[in-house]
Amino acid sequence: MNLQYISDQNGIHKSVVIPIEDWNRIKEKYSGLEDELSEDVYQLSKEQETAIDIALDAMNNGEEISHKSVTEETRKKYPQLFKNR
Question: 13 with 6: CB under 8 angstroms?
Protein backbone atom coordinates (compact mmCIF):
# COMPACT_ATOMS: atom_id res chain seq x y z
CA MET A 1 0.00 0.00 0.00
CA ASN A 2 1.49 3.30 -1.09
CA LEU A 3 0.36 5.85 1.51
CA GLN A 4 0.91 9.59 1.26
CA TYR A 5 0.88 11.54 4.51
CA ILE A 6 -0.15 15.17 4.72
CA SER A 7 1.57 16.98 7.59
CA ASP A 8 1.23 20.39 9.19
CA GLN A 9 4.05 22.92 9.51
CA ASN A 10 5.32 21.05 12.59
CA GLY A 11 5.56 17.74 10.75
CA ILE A 12 2.53 16.26 12.52
CA HIS A 13 0.50 13.96 10.26
CA LYS A 14 -2.99 15.35 9.75
CA SER A 15 -4.28 13.26 6.82
CA VAL A 16 -3.44 10.27 4.71
CA VAL A 17 -4.08 9.58 1.04
CA ILE A 18 -4.36 5.98 -0.14
CA PRO A 19 -4.78 4.62 -3.65
CA ILE A 20 -8.41 3.93 -4.59
CA GLU A 21 -7.69 0.25 -5.17
CA ASP A 22 -6.50 -0.09 -1.58
CA TRP A 23 -9.52 1.83 -0.29
CA ASN A 24 -11.86 -0.48 -2.18
CA ARG A 25 -10.14 -3.56 -0.68
CA ILE A 26 -10.45 -2.07 2.82
CA LYS A 27 -14.17 -1.39 2.29
CA GLU A 28 -14.70 -4.98 1.14
CA LYS A 29 -12.84 -6.39 4.13
CA TYR A 30 -14.64 -4.21 6.68
CA SER A 31 -18.26 -4.15 5.56
CA GLY A 32 -20.14 -1.18 6.89
CA LEU A 33 -17.02 0.97 7.18
CA GLU A 34 -18.09 3.46 4.55
CA ASP A 35 -21.53 3.85 6.14
CA GLU A 36 -19.91 4.45 9.50
CA LEU A 37 -17.52 7.03 8.07
CA SER A 38 -20.29 8.85 6.22
CA GLU A 39 -22.30 9.37 9.41
CA ASP A 40 -22.41 12.92 10.68
CA VAL A 41 -19.09 13.41 12.48
CA TYR A 42 -20.50 16.49 14.14
CA GLN A 43 -23.25 14.68 15.96
CA LEU A 44 -23.59 16.07 19.46
CA SER A 45 -23.56 13.94 22.56
CA LYS A 46 -26.44 14.26 25.04
CA GLU A 47 -24.11 16.18 27.37
CA GLN A 48 -23.27 18.65 24.60
CA GLU A 49 -26.93 19.09 23.71
CA THR A 50 -27.74 19.75 27.37
CA ALA A 51 -24.94 22.31 27.69
CA ILE A 52 -26.13 24.14 24.59
CA ASP A 53 -29.72 24.14 25.81
CA ILE A 54 -28.62 25.57 29.18
CA ALA A 55 -26.62 28.29 27.44
CA LEU A 56 -29.51 29.17 25.13
CA ASP A 57 -31.93 29.34 28.05
CA ALA A 58 -29.53 31.62 29.93
CA MET A 59 -29.19 33.85 26.88
CA ASN A 60 -32.97 34.03 26.48
CA ASN A 61 -33.22 35.07 30.16
CA GLY A 62 -30.83 37.96 29.59
CA GLU A 63 -27.81 36.24 31.11
CA GLU A 64 -24.97 36.91 28.70
CA ILE A 65 -21.36 35.73 28.86
CA SER A 66 -18.74 36.99 26.43
CA HIS A 67 -17.08 34.63 23.97
CA LYS A 68 -13.70 35.63 25.40
CA SER A 69 -14.79 34.65 28.91
CA VAL A 70 -16.12 31.28 27.77
CA THR A 71 -12.93 30.57 25.83
CA GLU A 72 -10.73 31.46 28.81
CA GLU A 73 -12.72 29.25 31.19
CA THR A 74 -12.78 26.40 28.67
CA ARG A 75 -9.01 26.68 28.19
CA LYS A 76 -8.54 26.41 31.98
CA LYS A 77 -10.90 23.46 32.40
CA TYR A 78 -9.95 21.56 29.22
CA PRO A 79 -6.37 22.56 28.27
CA GLN A 80 -5.97 19.42 26.16
CA LEU A 81 -8.40 20.90 23.63
CA PHE A 82 -6.01 23.78 22.97
CA LYS A 83 -2.69 21.94 22.53
CA ASN A 84 -2.31 22.85 18.86
CA ARG A 85 -3.57 26.40 19.14
Answer: yes
